[in-house]
Design brief:
By secondary structure, this protein is of the alpha/beta class. It is built from 15 helices and twelve strands.
């Protein structure tokens, strides 16, 4: 059993929330470029250094990492490939926890370095645009009024519960743009949201669909194809908004959960599903276009959904919330959103009517019926 040690660094500039390992970076570079020299150039290191490090790691781990054959490019050994994919999968599965850990550390240091920094706690369903917003807010806000988004990724349901329990100021969740009454979305979210108490702030639309190996070898175009071919499926955990979306789509297409081969295989985020497909552990999963693109996968769009930010009505008067709303309305931020695969800004920063946006409340009908 090999033991792990974790470290972190302090920097003025933002970086992806990952726990990096130099060996995996070496293996990735050599695999991508087909040679030690090519990998070394990509990393800005010398051939001698990379070769020496790989040999040291082989001795440390007790197995070969690369295979050389005469006249052929260097390639990862079976052990080396398994090691790289295992690390990728672990990173994807742990991304929300790593992000939460970094957010907690940054929150503490933000207050230590600058008392004027405004901290806005946001519990949210995993989303690439929210991650981008977190980094953008720190760069875009003025030194005299820095805005630090304390982001904790969790399922949509858990995010709204955290809001209602006072653990955050904002929550992020998503629903289908054509969501109707008497659906799973209504049964899930209606008990948690109250018109007059909660306020929706517009954020973006995004595309959800099938994440597939390059070339779509099984020719999957919809969930019916997934069920018919018994393709190995990667699902999301209970409490996630994407699990609600999947179950809604299954209901719309007359499919049951047990018809999906892998409905019980659970992954904690879009990126974890994408890595499960990229590593060959699964054939397909439901997720966002941005995660598919980052993992080098094909993507078949199925639905468009709106990603919402929700807060208590009283929170709209808080200066940090007002500052965030102003930032969301800037053309510069909306250009950032358009640059993320599958995303478009939609009523960004605007306070929206919950009754109009979510078709689950019909007060006029209720009043008429009671009279």
């Amino acid at each position: 059993m090999h033991r792990l040690q974790l470290h972190y660094t302090l920097s003025k500039y933002s970086s992806p929330a990952q726990v990096r390992n130099p060996l995996i970076d070496l293996l990735q570079a050599v695999s991508n470029h087909g040679s030690i020299s090519g990998g070394a150039r990509a990393l800005g290191l010398s051939y001698r250094h990379v070769w020496g490090e790989l040999k040291r790691w082989e001795q440390e781990l007790g197995d070969e990492l690369l295979v050389w054959e005469k006249g052929q490019s260097a390639r990862l050994s079976t052990f080396g490939a398994k090691l790289m994919w295992a690390e990728r999968q672990a990173q994807a599965r742990l991304a929300p926890q790593i992000e939460a850990l970094r957010a907690e550390l940054e929150r503490s240091f933000a207050q230590a370095f600058d008392d004027s920094v405004q901290v806005l706690t946001l519990y949210a369903s995993h989303d690439e645009a929210i991650s981008a917003l977190r980094e953008y807010a720190l760069r875009a806000t003025e030194e005299s009024a820095r805005l630090h988004l304390d982001v904790r990724f969790t399922g949509s349901v858990d995010a709204i519960r955290a809001l209602n329990e006072g653990r955050c100021i904002l929550a992020g969740f998503h629903t289908l743009t054509n969501s109707d009454r008497k659906t799973l979305a209504e049964r899930t979210y209606k008990p948690l949201l109250k018109p007059g108490l909660h306020k929706i702030i517009g954020f973006a639309t995004r595309s959800q669909g099938l994440m597939l190996a390059q070339g779509n070898p099984l020719a999957l175009q919809n969930l019916t194809d997934v069920a018919r071919t018994q393709a190995r499926f990667a699902n999301r955990t209970l409490g996630s908004g994407t699990r609600v979306v999947l179950d809604e789509l299954l209901s719309q297409q007359g499919l049951s959960a047990h018809e999906l081969n892998g409905y019980q295989r659970l992954e904690p985020s879009h990126s974890a599903v994408a890595q499960a497909v990229a590593s060959g552990q699964c054939d397909v999963g439901l997720g966002i276009a941005a995660s598919a693109q980052l993992a080098g996968l094909d993507f078949v769009p199925l639905v468009t959904e709106r990603y919402h930010l929700v807060c208590l009505k009283s929170a709209l008067e808080q200066s940090a919330v007002q500052q965030l709303r102003q930032l969301l309305q800037t053309p510069a931020w909306q250009d950032v959103v358009r640059g993320i695969a599958g995303y478009r800004p939609q009523d960004s920063g605007q306070v929206l009517s919950m009754r109009k946006l979510l078709p689950w409340w019909h007060f006029a009908q209720t009043k008429e019926h009671s009279s």
